[in-house]
Backbone:
């Protein structure tokens, strides 16, 4: 596993995830969030969207996966913070681009951009804090 | 009608839940682009320490650990109950998840017995938008804090 000396300000990482037709349904099954706006196209449309929209928490889970892959251990991700600035609609592909902005002793600070296939930001102010001494 | 700010301080819980290994695995697989459940074959690319017992047993944790946002499975309940609370009268078609913060404590593992409480900590309006924030706190059986969440919804009036 990566050690403290392996993390440097300016490191970058990337993750791409797709909100395929089944993703909100699978996510509902494993999270418990069955709000109809996420699993029924008609309800998504009634709410003013072109289709069902993905649970914001699934987008946040993707962000967490991007940070986990960089940090090397799920338990190192200690703080996560996001603002959901635009819904992710079924069919969207989201690209997460993260960078390390600070390494302060055992604390690694990350900032992440998340954009859909049209280049629109789906998260704003997404940040994470990794703690390297968790075990 | 804006949401009545007198509901700040309204509490939900405590709620108990027990974490199981299959639940951690399914969550990690579904998030990573795979298909959970009986007919699922694709696994996506989850971190091995959340899905593979063998790899996890050789990790510093010695067993599976939950992915960072797994807390949704037990800690979202107070937020969901607040959003659909008849006393607040929110139209769910007009509601979106606006902001989310998590602060993790001890790693979450299979067998953990967790207790979650939640409280409405903020109700404010900005133009035609209402914001509702719920703070949740989850502890394990040893009394260690495993998760603090701040869940914010926006309602378009």
Residues:
């Amino acid at each position: 596993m990566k050690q403290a000396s392996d993390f440097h300000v300016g490191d970058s990482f990337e993750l791409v995830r797709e909100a395929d037709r089944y993703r909100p349904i699978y996510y509902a099954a494993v999270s418990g969030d069955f709000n109809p706006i996420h699993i029924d196209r008609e309800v998504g449309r009634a709410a003013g969207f072109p289709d069902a929209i993905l649970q914001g928490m699934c987008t946040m889970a993707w962000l967490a996966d991007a940070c986990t892959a960089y940090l090397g251990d799920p338990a190192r991700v200690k703080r996560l913070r996001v603002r959901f600035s635009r819904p992710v609609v079924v069919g969207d592909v989201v690209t997460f681009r993260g960078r390390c902005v600070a390494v302060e002793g055992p604390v690694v600070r990350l900032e992440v951009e998340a954009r859909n296939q049209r280049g629109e930001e789906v998260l704003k102010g997404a940040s994470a804090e990794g703690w390297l001494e968790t075990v | 009608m804006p949401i009545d700010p007198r509901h700040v301080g309204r509490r939900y819980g405590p709620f108990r839940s027990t974490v199981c290994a299959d639940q951690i695995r399914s969550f990690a697989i579904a998030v990573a682009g795979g298909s959970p459940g009986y007919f699922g074959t694709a696994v996506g690319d989850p971190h091995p320490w959340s899905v593979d017992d063998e790899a996890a047993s050789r990790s510093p944790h010695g067993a599976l650990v939950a992915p960072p946002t797994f807390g949704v499975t037990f800690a979202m309940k107070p937020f969901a109950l607040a959003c659909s609370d008849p006393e607040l009268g929110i139209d769910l078609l007009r509601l979106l998840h606006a902001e989310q913060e998590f602060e993790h404590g001890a790693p979450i593992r299979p067998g953990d017995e967790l207790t979650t409480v939640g409280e409405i900590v903020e109700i404010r309006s900005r133009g035609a938008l209402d914001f509702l924030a719920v703070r949740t706190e989850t502890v394990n059986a040893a009394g260690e804090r495993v998760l603090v969440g701040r869940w914010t919804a926006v309602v378009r009036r």
